[in-house]
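Chapter review. Work through the record for Glycosyl transferase family 2 before attempting the end-of-chapter questions.
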Amino acid sequence: MHGQSAAPARAAQRAPTVSCVIPAFNENENLRLLLPGLEAILRSQSSAWEIIVVDDGSTDGTADLMAAWVRAGGFRYLQLSRNFGKEAALSAGLNAAEGDVAICLDADLQHPPALIPQMLERWRAGADMVCAVRASRDDESRIKRVGASLLYRILGSGNRIRIIADAGDFRLMDRTVVAALLRLPERTRFMKGLYAWVGFTTESIEYVPPERLHGPSRFSFLRLVTFAVDGITAFSTLPLRVLSLCGLVVALLAFMYGTYLIIEYLFVGNPVSGWTTIVTAMLFLSGVHLLGLGVIGAYISRIFDEVKQRPLYLLRNDIGSGLDTTAQDSDAEC
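Structure tokens for Glycosyl transferase family 2:
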């Protein structure tokens, strides 16, 4: 309903103010290629725009590069005090964004800015959020494809929200969506889940990500596993339900086996062969207990992070005027 009622007003608003949020960690070479092309597209689509680069603790020449770009106007550079992670960097950028719409994209050139005009058209038609969805994962390893499929199955099990599979952070969001995201108090943020949780009218556009031109991917296998654990513990209780089911099954099997041994001893007279049975059972139950403690510990660690109430990120520098500059330039041209 919100999207339908907003459609006529957005159709009349041909040039919304646009904020582009780009989290970056050691992406100096890729930013040199991304920023000029992104600026050209925004100039053709909006009368007032800003590009917000959030430096998530880079150690390359990102700071020097952005010091030159912010002097040109329309650019804002947020430098975090250390590496807080991509989710925190995105939150910092969205908190600084002032446009009618906010567009998040990565700095590695795998999120093509050429899709921005299509996203804006969908927004004018009434969509509150437009996300880019990978057309396929054929370029990834089989392990990563299977892992991603399993993750989305777990997140979708018994959950009232639907997380769009293969949709990343490359998306356009209306101002109301950004405001809703900023109201969420989580410290450990799984943005894919939060995008889905806030709801609103969402549409998707398929795309094929181009190859990364400079530098290796920042997401190692261990980081991907950590990312998956964060998502599961934030948006699914399936592991806890599985543990409860395992406990019930083990208890029933133990009761049935114990009953069998008692009946055999009373009616057949066979002595209970204790040592092998007991050791096997103890080793099995010890493994189940340790696995259960690990799963419960993952959930408790999330509680521990939340109750400390530490800031999601800390800023070292905030340079540039962003949207104010391009808005003033537009007024001067008029």
